[in-house]
Amino acid sequence: MTGRLTNREVISLLEKIAILLEIKGENRFKIIAYKRAAENIASLGIELDQLREEELRDIPGIGEAIAAKIHEFLETGKLEYYEKLTAEIPESLLSLAELPEMGPKRVRSVWADLGITNLQSLEEAARKGLLRHLEGFGPRLEDKLLSGIEKTREKKISGRIPLGKAWEVAHDLLAALGKHEKVLKISPAGSLRRMQETIGDIDLLVASSEPSSVMTFVASLPQVEDTILQGKTKTSVRLKSGLQVDVRVMDPSSWGTALQYFTGNQEHNVQIREWALKRGFSLSEYSLGNVSTGEELFFNNEDSLYVFLDLVYIPPELRQGRDEIELASKGKLPDLVVMDDIKGDLQCHTQWSDGRNSLGDMVKGAMKRGLEYLLITDHSHALGIAGGVSSADLENQGKEIDELNASLKGSFRVLKGVEVEVLSDGILDLDEKVLKNLDLVVAAVHSSLRQDRERITERILRVLDNPFVDILAHPTGRLLSNREGADADWERVFAKAAEKDVLMEINASPKRLDLPDRLARRALEKGCRFVISTDAHATDQMDFMHLGVGIARRAGLSSSEIANCWSLERLMEWKKTRLSS
DNA sequence: GCCGTTTTCGGCCCGACTGTTTTCAGTCG
């Protein structure tokens, strides 16, 4: 056995195989199979190295051949098939395939005809004007490739951005577009609408009978750097921030099919179109065509389209190309939590530690957002960087909270809490006699996240065994596109959390989104219950709640499983029974 | 290479846009 391999490494291997096979010119369905397998692993809530080879085959899209390859790779750290493949097709061609406009055919072409195997030699050939002589190439493409190479070097082609950031950008664009008089309807689409944790580009769908006018307007917006492409119904622009925005304009009569198509994901769309075909209908973004009669059916909303196809409406967050169509056909989709279900926020910070606003302001912020209760959870003192509170501070804060509650006369309830630091051995930073006086206790790991799996797992399990801990904050500790989460054995963590009824947090901070949806789904399967918390360090950050709700919906969570959807009475009753058990 | 409410073999979504063409291939989603 070599060092452990993560799912990420298996996904990367399968993706590389797919691209190499494309360059090789293999059967395209074989290529799709590798890509599908990689995608399905990406949304898996369990580490592959915890599964036996037979169990790998239970993952959709993974059959005998790919299971055997994954198994070999996990066991030996190598894959003979891959080594043979790269002996035939140079691995360095993968870097060419990452360039915009360079797909497998063109990569093969420059390699086979000009012997080009890396970015430098491609750039040289383009500068010398050698590429334009290849079949299907020309001067325009040569220019595009050169600028693509340059942008890649300058890292100007932005990678995926966090969901929260994408919503900020989209919000402005939607507002601007909404003012255009020819815009009849407008909606976010794509991964943004599906609330995926990171977003590659922003997709917007517009209904209008004058597409060209709308698209010209889009290209003229002040945030736009340049127009990547513009056709009759579709335009893509790059913003000054580097982010790409795709706008598709459709006739309002096609709104239902168009929004369905443009929301995806790709795999869900493939499945829904196959599902429609089995029923004799061909689905496109324009309409649903009856294959035998040629009759076209139009849907002005998504709901009626799904219902026509003998399904119930599938919320965008569940359109992941998993088992959602099968569940929808049986009416077994979960009843997903919605923003209106949220009654309180169970993690926030004030000026008592590293928050920007006073306790009173945070309470006002929560009331303004229609909440009924707010748990104050300043950091405990071990987290020096955050100016954490001592037990004496907590006592004084408690008095402030009592006074606030007295003045609020029951219209809102401020709850006493803390985000208590978990030390490296799993011991808490505050005494039990302090913790037991609080309404709810949130425990969090902020340090030594890089401990090996056994050690960090034992550490978290010890926290879950502590009878005073009610909530485990941001369980993995990851920071999106910045820091990987802890490598804990989540199967054991979730089993223990379910046993002890410690609530798993879905932290809605755009930097975190933790638990991630794939792990939250797994936790749900293990019987866990949850909270969705903003972790607000200022009043405006209380608006992060919708991001957390999006992640929860992707995980298939209902309000009954989320403690801050409960009434205050039920929440406090729950706490009481925990203390007495 | 995967998969099964037409199938264990023969299928495996559908269209926009660009640059190269002179009717289309390649890329992208």
Quick take:
This protein is an alpha/beta fold.
CATH structural fold name of the largest domain? TIM Barrel
- For the report, how would you describe the main beta sheet? 7 strands, parallel
- The number of helices is 24
Low-confidence stretches: none
Structural class: alpha/beta
CATH fourth-tier homologous superfamily of the largest domain: Metal-dependent hydrolases
When the domains are counted, the total is 4
Helix content: 40-55%
Query: What is the molecular shape?
Result: globular
In terms of DSSP E residues, the strand content is: 5-15%
Chain-wise SSE layout:
Elements: H1 7-24, H2 28-42, H3 53-56, H4 64-76, H5 80-88, H6 93-97, H7 104-114, H8 119-127, H9 139-153, E1 161-162, H10 163-178, E2 185-189, H11 190-193, E3 198-199, E4 202-207, H12 211-220, E5 224-230, E6 234-239, E7 244-250, H13 255-263, H14 266-278, E8 281-283, E9 288-290, E10 296-297, H15 302-308, H16 324-329, E11 344-345, H17 359-368, E12 373-376, H18 391-408, E13 413-421, H19 432-435, E14 440-444, H20 453-465, E15 471-472, H21 490-500, E16 503-507, H22 517-525, E17 530-533, H23 545-554, H24 568-580
Parallel strand pairs: 4-7, 11-12, 12-13, 13-14, 14-15, 15-16, 16-17
Antiparallel strand pairs: 1-3, 2-4, 5-6, 6-7, 8-9, 9-10
Helix pairs in contact: 1-2, 1-7, 8-9, 13-15, 20-21, 21-22, 22-23
The chain binds one DNA strand of 29 nucleotides through residues 27-34, 36-37, 60-66, 100-106, 135-141, 144, 190, 201, 203, 229-234, 236, 246, 248, 261-262, 264-266, 269-274, 276-278, 282-286.
